[in-house]
């Protein structure tokens, strides 16, 4: 029987940079564990072999894949963030979309009076909604 389900993020060389970026965005966040590849292992020495971090109580695993892939993240799977207020939402929207792209600008969409969707510079997709406003 399964004991947990944890989102697993696979990067190709920038896992630590992404993890540091994500944990800097939230007050309740931190890096829990970080293991690096050593000389002679399959991955590039010093790259993230396995790491775990937390954002607002949600655990994430991440790695730097030692194998190159013909795929990356897709907006079909995204992180949904309930923001406490419009200022927090705007800050996250601006920071996450910097060097990334805006998929849906912050606006009224019928299902929420203020919602936005961005893809960050690492290719990870984020939906940003005001708390208390639901679909």
From TrEMBL:
Gene3D superfamilies: 3.30.720.100, 3.30.720.110
Domain PhnB-like: 4-128
InterPro entries for this protein: 3_dmu_93_MTrfase (IPR009725), Glyas_Bleomycin-R_OHBP_Dase (IPR029068), PhnB-like (IPR028973)
Entry-linked PANTHER family: PHNB-LIKE DOMAIN-CONTAINING PROTEIN, PROTEIN YJDN-RELATED
Protein's name according to its UniProt entry: VOC family protein
Organism this protein belongs to: Saccharospirillum salsuginis
Lineage: Bacteria, Pseudomonadati, Pseudomonadota, Gammaproteobacteria, Oceanospirillales
